[in-house]
Amino acid sequence: HRLLSQRAVQQEAILATLVLLHPADGASSRPESRLPAVYPQVLAVLRRDGAERWPDAALQTSEDRSRGAGRAALGPIDAASGQYTLVRAGEPSSFALRIDIQRMVPWDTWPLARDGPVRAELRHDTRVIVLQPGSTVEARPAGLTAGFRFSKALDAASQPFDLQLQRATGPAEWPWHWLAGWSLFSAAALAALAGGRRGIRERRRAVELLRVGQVARLNAMGELAGGMAHELNQPLAALLTSTQAAGRLLDDDPPALAEARRAMAQAAAQARRAADVVARLRRLVEAPDATPPRQVVDLAVALRAVLELLEPEIRRCGIQVSVEGGSSAVNADPVALEQIMHNLIGNAIKSLDDVPAGDRSLTLTVSAENGQGVLSVCDSGPGIDAEALPHLFEPFFTTRPNGQGVGLGLGLSLCESLAQRMAGSLSARHATPRGAEFRLTLPLAHSQGL
Ligand code: ADP
Description:
By secondary structure, this protein is of the alpha+beta class. The chain has 9 helices and 15 strands. A hairpin with a 2-residue loop joins β5 (about 120-125) and β6.
């Protein structure tokens, strides 16, 4: 653009100089005839003196325009041959330059490859003069071309040509190696990044799991210790009561041997229960994930054994116990089952502490529903608060003041875990008209093909 603009301005200057010099000796001396030798783009210099006429009427029109504008004006353009005329009106002579555009371009300093892909043209209105053909965008398959276009008017008012450059590219010219290399590099970098991130995430997860595992183990240890205290406290207390009672009975005169023997048998049963609990806890510590040994146990038989153990307490509190329903053979770990029943009935007994002596009743029902053996423990106590209900089975949830019984809040959570380990469940609800009902369900033995 700069080079062509310079040439255009140069042509303006040539004409201006010619008009300015207008030789004094008239038509005889024609220095302009030597111009084509100096300026290769100037093919010919035309001159009109005085009353002469231009060979082409169009030149006259251009001269009129030049006179009006006070500078050179564009004359006829011959796009086919790549030539145009530039006219400058003067007195007494007017001049015109016929210019060959191909020679106007200083090819030696031209910055583009002449047979390269860039198309260069000069445009004026509808006329197009091609400087170099390049390869046109239209020649490419549609949709697979990309192109660059440049368009700017020459910086010479007398020659209002637009210089247009365009470069089309198609798939064949695209830098496939570079693109492929870059894609591979990007993919590898992304993969490395993702891998790194995954590694970090995995390491973090491993550390977190370890931490959670340790906390869980500590919690489990704490729960186990608490559970042990809870489970052993009751048989030990009962053992103490029975042996003290036996001692008193023996001190009687005459000693009440039969009662003393019964009290000692109770004490022995409680001691056995304590030993069973310890054995079960030890098994849990040694093989925490082992499924407990299952046997076919009749809920009604297990219930009778537990009631027998709790009989002294039931009698002491004056509780009316009614056992309903038939027998129901379930699949269970007998020690765990006994522990659950002991806890549920123990809680029911405790709940009756504040109930007037005549109203203390306990209803125990054994039944079978939907392939499950069900034990319902229903008391006539105060029942369960609506706010407490959702938290009953959470460890350490208790409403009992510490002085009143154990009050560790571990009994029900332990029972629920035990029930779940035997593929059973434990639920609680407020009973009607009053009191609480706890329901233990366990898979019926025959439903498992035993
Ligand atoms: P703890 O007996 O040590 O408090 P539990 O887990 O056995 O722990 O019981 C949690 C709570 O559930 C008790 O504090 C009590 O509020 C409530 N609860 C349990 N059984 C009964 C029941 N039969 N009647 C009313 N509330 C009960």
